[in-house]
Amino acid sequence: MADRRQDSDRPDKAQSSWVPKTRLGMMVKSGEITTMSAALATKLPLREPQIVDALFGEGELKDEVIDLNMVQRMTDSGRRVRFAVTCIVGNGDGFIGIGRAKGKEVGPAIRKAIDNAKLNIIEIKRGCGSWECGCQQPHSLPFEVKGTCGSVEVTFKPAPRGITLAVGDVAKSMLTLAGVKDAWGFARGNTKTKVNYALATFEALRMTSKMRVTEEQAKEQNIVSGPIGITIEETDIDSMEE
Q1: Which residue, among 87, 101, 39, has the nearest Cα to 202 in the 3D structure?
Q2: 3-state helix, strand, coil in the chain (%, to 5)
Q3: Residues contacting 21, CB < 8 A, separation 6+
Q4: Is 218 helix (H, G, I), strand (E, B) or coil?
Q5: Alpha helix positions (H), 153-193
Q6: pTM for this structure?
Q7: Fewest CB atoms within 10 Å of the CB: 128, 154, 170, 240?
Q8: Torsion over CA of 228, 225, 94 and 57, rounded to 10 degrees?
Q9: Among positive and negative, which fits the CA dihedral 52, 44, 47, 203?
Q10: CA 231, CA 237: separation in Å to the nearest integer?
Q11: Looking at the DSSP assignment, which residues form a beta bridge with residue 123?
Q12: Torsion angle of alpha carbons 28, 121, 124, 91, nearest 10°?
């Protein structure tokens, strides 16, 4: 089940009445930190979803439900039904998060999973790592990355512009919300298990931020971390005008 929408679960009134309980939350509330990149750079634990809401503009952060299962359990009092939800959030420009939650009702479980995804948000690197392209625009991955979860192992490789996302449906949703336009994808194991597939994809994207890149390599492949504030279509227009 997939359901993409704008994140409007927390209105401005709730944001204005937010009282931060952590050091990072106080820094964001006071205006000392104004971007998500700066918040992650502090290395302080992200424990309040309101921090993410405050650092992203209205409608900028989007969420998607990638898996929803009904779990039944027999007890002495009868049949007990709960819902297990897996959600992802991203701004389509360098940030992606994944979260899971369980609940007796679908709505609260989805909201809790979205909040958990916000707490797990990461910043990824993008670049032009394909030798077939050489456009020097951060439209793809800067290098090959791998991720595993359970029996699922995924590998993503840089692709030239125009290939789009040659990956599975779950990985395509995550890469789209992360801001990756072109990529080759390979998967092994039981990929029908959407949760493991999604967690393996998230781990692969996390590897882009863990990989150390020299200044020379970053300049050669135009590797950027986090938001770039420009789309591929805008880049095409600029190149045509030149």
Answers
A1: 87
A2: 35, 30, 40
A3: 47, 48
A4: helix
A5: 169-178
A6: 0.84
A7: 240
A8: -60
A9: positive
A10: 10
A11: 95
A12: -80
Residue 97 has which token pair? 């998060």
Q: What angle do CA 231, 237, 242 make, to 5 degrees?
A: 130
Count other Cβ atoms within 10 Å, centred on residue 82.
14
> Do 47 and 26 form a contact (C-beta atoms < 8 A)?
no
Look-up of token digits 């931060």: 20
In one-letter notation, the amino acid at residue 176 is T
Q: How far apart are CA 83 and CA 102, in angstroms?
A: 5
Return the structure tokens found at 2. 């997939």
Q: Quick one: tokens of 135? A: 């456009």
The neighbour count for residue 26, using CB atoms within 10 Å, is: 13
**Cα–Cα distance for residue pair 15/12, rounded to 1 Å:** 5
pLDDT in tens, 68-95: 999 888 888 788 889 999 999 999 999 9
Q: Is 54 helix (H, G, I), strand (E, B) or coil?
A: helix
Structural domains of the chain sorted by starting position, each given as residue range(s) with its CATH number in brackets: 3-123 (3.30.160.20), 125-237 (3.30.230.10)
Residues 14-66 have pLDDT tens digits of 566 889 999 999 999 999 999 999 999 999 999 999 999 999 988 889 999 99
